[in-house]
Amino acid sequence: DRQTLVAVLQFLRRSNLRESEEILRREARLLGDDLGSCVATVATSSPGVAAVASIPPGKGEIRGDCGVGPCSRREPREVGSPCAVRSLGGYRDAGTQGSVSVGGAVVVEDQPDVSAVLSAYNQQGDPTLYEEYYSGLKHFIECSLDCHRAELSQLFYPLFVHMYLELVYNQHESEAKSFFERFHGDQECYYQDDLRVLSSLTKKEHMKGNETMLDFRTSKFVLRISRDSYQLLKRHLQEKQNNQIWNIVQEHLYIDIFDGMPRSKQQIDAMVGSLAGEAKREANKAKVFFGLLKEPEFDVPLDDEDEEGENEEGKPKKKKPKKDNVGSKSKKQDPNAPPQNRIPLPELKDSDKLDKVMNMKEAARRVRLGPECLPSICFYTFLNAYQGLTAVDITDDSSMIVGGFADSTVRVWSVTPKKLRSVKTAADLSLIDKESDDVLERIMDEKTASELKILYGHSGPVYGTSFSPDRNYLLSCSEDGTVRLWSLQTFTCLVGYKGHNYPVWDTQFSPYGYYFVSGGHDRVARLWATDHYQPLRIFAGHLADVTCTRFHPNSNYIATGSADRTIRLWDVLNGNCVRIFTGHKGPIHSLAFSPNGRFLATGATDGRVLLWDIGHGLMVGELKGHTDTVYALRFSRDGEILASGSMDNTVRLWDAVKAFEDLETDDFTTATGHINLPENSQDLLLGTYMTKSTPVVHLHFTRRNLLLAAGAYSSQ
């Protein structure tokens, strides 16, 4: 690009770097007289404004497919484009007006990684005019037509943050303070927490170690705007010669342009609010196999001898090797299901097959739920839990309940009359007749029977617990940075998985066992297998703590919720992020997949429950009613009802069938990501159940659709 080259040569000449200038000119085969003629054209391009920052009218289009200035390969680059300058390894510097200064990044003396990020704030405008620029744009947007105003208002927050940071970085502290005080009240209420962090950054030094700051700088803030609104904005900024704002738009924002009608305020409000704006539409285009895997079929005689082989818990007593034709086709293969062997899943053991049979028997006696037939709710209240209850899980067959506590203990209770027993010692085991029918009973030590077992090992609060599907193992994760695997045969710790360096907030077993996932303060989720010391996959992409994790029912995908206010869906096979869902206004604390694998429900500190269509990558519902953080979500066994539990001491039941039935997932809505949510979710609310003073931290539907809820009584 000839003009860019000339700008660089000028800079070298002004800096008395003759040698470099000669080399570059030889490389580019530019002779001295050529340079002279070019210099004239560049220098007069826009008097009074740094030439690098001038925007030739009609150029500098922000492309929906790339997002950074005219970096579409099909257009000539302009000197004014961030890309052209960035390719030279530097950024504009304050400099004197009318001069072209490239390579400003060289001057900054930060740590190398942070300096690269911060150098983009080398400033190019008059600090006293920032308030004028911003209020000018604000006036323009507020006076534009209603249809454009809602869309363009999305610019206020990211521009406010970047202009403030630019002032702070260039040490105009008083201007920065007055800019913040004048405009911070205009931002949307859901950015209050971010603004609180921002207000504490008042000096250049503060910016170096600040993670929020770096996130904001390194990840482009994504805005989804219709082409008409975008053209309007561009015309306005060019007429006003408002280069300061235009530079920020080009350098720090990604504008995802769509053709069609601008979105309404209500449509935009439903989708925005995350740390980095909305998800790009491209992020939700990948194919997701959301169908269920085919269940193997069993030939198991359901006769009397089988009946006595069970105890109250439904745990098999006898293992009889039966000739199962496990491979035979049961239901037709779901067209949306992943290939059966897409990821390696563990083989079914005999005890697993017996358990599946029990499950089928229970399912035959299952209550069909619906608006006319709501489930009974059984609430387990932890009394005197002065240790601080921090996590709860219940086994699939509802025979055991586990609590993780802030005093670093893990406590397991039996909730059936059958007590918890450990296996006998090795010496005693050697005396047992291994051929006897009830060998599994004989290996248990009656002397150890008790209703409660306490597991010691963590050195910090336990934030997540998860039973394995076969009820032989238990996972717990803690503030100490480890995930521990406990045996429920011996009630001892088998492995400590060390991979996270910071607190681990959640962990969960795969529905098929063997694999498990953990997420923590280090912003990544990790996929593990019980027999591997190191993680198999590391899912990186969130901009803040990973607060909750969930396996998809087919075990091929993992959903993670984060404090960056987004939910991501990851592919276990290759570690790719295949969905990004934005719309919550606070950290995500609960996730639940529908039993058919098509939908995801998410709950957060904003008290809203959002519903997502995984296949189309769209938000399809918003359930409003809770007044505090939603910590627990669970679909009934057949997916007719969604239960939500919250810190507001209530359990609410929602009509899931109705919520998902009239979806308009036609091509238009999928293409633009528009949604029309009903104004009122009250017609989906089937019931609200208050506890006296117990926040709900866990929900579980038994195999017969009885709803179990759990929480610790709080006396305040």
Automatic annotation (TrEMBL):
PROSITE patterns: LISH, WD_REPEATS_1, WD_REPEATS_2, WD_REPEATS_REGION. It is found in: Nucleus. Coiled coil: none annotated. InterPro entries: LisH (IPR006594), TFIID_NTD2 (IPR007582), TFIID_NTD2_sf (IPR037264), WD40/YVTN_repeat-like_dom_sf (IPR015943), WD40_PAC1 (IPR020472), WD40_repeat_CS (IPR019775), WD40_repeat_dom_sf (IPR036322), WD40_rpt (IPR001680). It holds the Pfam family TFIID_NTD2. Gene3D superfamilies: TFIID subunit TAF5, NTD2 domain (1.25.40.500), YVTN repeat-like/Quinoprotein amine dehydrogenase (2.130.10.10). WD repeats lie at residues 382-423, 455-490, 497-528, 539-580, 581-614, 623-655. One of its GO terms (biological process) is transcription initiation at RNA polymerase II promoter. Residues 300-311 have a biased composition (Acidic residues). Residues 323-334 have a biased composition (Basic and acidic residues). Residues 300-352 are annotated as: Disordered. Keywords: Nucleus, Repeat, Transcription, Transcription regulation, WD repeat. Residues 125-253 form the TFIID subunit TAF5 NTD2 domain. Homodimer. Component of the TFIID basal transcription factor complex, composed of TATA-box-binding protein TBP, and a number of TBP-associated factors (TAFs), including TAF1, TAF2, TAF3, TAF4, TAF5, TAF6, TAF7, TAF8, TAF9, TAF10, TAF11, TAF12 and TAF13. The TFIID complex structure can be divided into 3 modules TFIID-A, TFIID-B, and TFIID-C. TAF5 forms the TFIID-A module together with TAF3 and TBP, and in TFIID-B with TAF8. Component of the TFTC-HAT complex, at least composed of TAF5L, TAF6L, TADA3L, SUPT3H/SPT3, TAF2, TAF4, TAF5, GCN5L2/GCN5, TAF10 and TRRAP. Belongs to the WD repeat TAF5 family. This is Transcription initiation factor TFIID subunit 5. The lineage of its organism: Eukaryota, Metazoa, Chordata, Craniata, Vertebrata.
